[in-house]
Specification:
There is one protein chain. The chain is of the alpha/beta class. The protein has 13 helices and 15 strands. The strands form 3 sheets. It has a 7-stranded parallel β-sheet, sandwiched between helices. Helix 10 packs antiparallel against helix 11 and helix 12 packs antiparallel against helix 13.
Length: 400
């Protein structure tokens, strides 16, 4: 079986930096197939930002699923991607999935419901990165008071920690030793069995996160007995969403002043992008967490690709307000490409979850029935209706 490593962690914890570290490391000679998933980034900002040609020799296959987080509408995409990878098994030695920061790790249940994947893939370990400076804010986040009584609002940060086999407390250079100790004690109350290590810039020994043979579903079930059960009323906080922008060349000083003001006035968890500055030939990669950001100079723009792209992820995003302030302060017009919110996908998440589980579990038995009884015909018609409905809803949601 091929090993599968899942890298997860809340927004801005350092997942992509760890992935890049693994891909460029000389500590292993593995050919790694990478699956990347981004919340609210339909223009592929993540791919363009982080993975240059220097990594290509280490990547057998790269897929960026931008049409939904893996725990929601992207679950079907994930299963399809994994099945496609298995058909090209000779091209790689290990699979690494980097989830979105908003992922609920319950998507792991998909492996245990798919016999072919279960027979071909070994879940090697779940690696959760933790932003030492900002994680406590997310662990203590209060649920949406407007959610119905029957709705379970997921605290993604807690879920990501609880399912981990390895916990990496990252960015320890931004906090004190006492804060690291307090954070470690807090994490231990959520997950008492995972190994914990600390890091700066996600720099860890690759052997501690790759090919570790550590995932144990029994440990997970002890912490959460319902982990493998389908929970249709479980959803993300609908107040958290993303908005993606595109714009042309911009004055750097004006842009930085605008961004500093925006991060101070809005509850932005994460921002990232690729920015084109007036008078500069090189692209600049934007990385921001909470109220801090950096701009890193990268390679020279290709003329045909020169276009600034940026995504904000946060609480109760106001795209029109953000656009207006940008246009006024920078003198450059910004286009809102897309806004993604949990609320607009709630029906889709429920239908997809039920439909996928039903088809995985019962499709072979239904379709291989040889009798022509009314029951058999009704079951086949129902299966086809579910499949057509899922496809139709997928097209409708993705157009929004």
């Amino acid at each position: 079986k091929v090993g599968l490593t899942i890298i997860t962690g809340f927004l801005g914890s350092g997942k992509t930096t760890l992935l890049s570290h693994i891909l460029t490391s000389t500590q292993h000679k593995k050919r790694i197939a990478v699956i990347e998933n981004e919340f609210g980034s339909p223009i592929g900002v993540h791919n363009e930002m982080e993975h240059g040609a220097e990594h290509a020799a280490c990547i057998a296959t790269m897929v960026e699923t931008t049409n939904g987080c893996l725990c929601c509408s992207g679950k079907g995409d994930l299963l399809n991607t994994l099945h496609s990878l298995i058909q090209n098994r000779d091209r790689f030695d290990q699979i690494v999935i980097e989830t979105t920061g908003m992922a609920d790790p319950s998507f792991i249940q998909a492996f245990y419901l798919d016999p072919q994947l279960r027979g071909s893939i070994r879940l090697d370990g779940v690696i959760t990165l933790i932003d030492a400076k900002n994680i406590l804010h997310h662990l203590n986040k209060k649920p949406d008071p407007t959610a119905g009584r029957d709705i379970e609002i997921v605290n993604e940060a807690i879920e990501q920690i609880s399912v981990a086999d390895r916990l990496i407390i990252n960015k320890i250079d931004l906090v004190t030793e006492d804060q690291v100790t307090h954070l470690t004690d807090t994490i231990r109350t959520i997950n008492p069995t995972a190994q914990i290590q600390t890091s700066r810039y996600s720099q860890v020994d690759v052997s501690s996160v790759l090919d570790i043979h550590s995932f144990d579903i029994e440990h997970v079930l002890k912490r959460d007995p319902n982990f493998l059960n389908f929970r249709p009323f479980r959803q993300h906080d609908k107040r958290v969403g993303s908005v993606t922008f595109s714009f042309g060349d911009v004055d750097r000083a004006k842009f930085e002043q605008w961004l500093d003001n925006t991060l101070s006035q809005h509850q932005v968890y994460r921002c990232k992008g690729v920015i084109a500055f007036l008078g500069e030939s090189n692209k600049h990669v934007l990385q921001g967490v909470q109220k801090t950001f950096t701009l890193e100079k990268r390679e020279v723009w290709e003329k045909k690709d020169r276009q600034s792209k940026m995504v904000f992820i946060g609480m109760e995003m106001q795209p029109e307000v953000i656009k207006k302030s940008f246009d006024e302060m920078t003198g450059t017009s910004m286009e809102i490409l897309r806004m993604a919110e949990g609320e607009s996908r709630s029906l889709w998440n429920l239908a997809m979850g039920v439909g996928i589980l039903f088809l995985i579990r019962y499709w072979p038995q239904i379709w291989n029935r040889e009798d022509s009884s009314m029951t058999s015909i009704a079951l086949k018609v129902m299966a086809l209706v579910i499949l057509i409905t899922m496809v139709g809803m997928g097209i409708t949601v993705r157009r929004k």
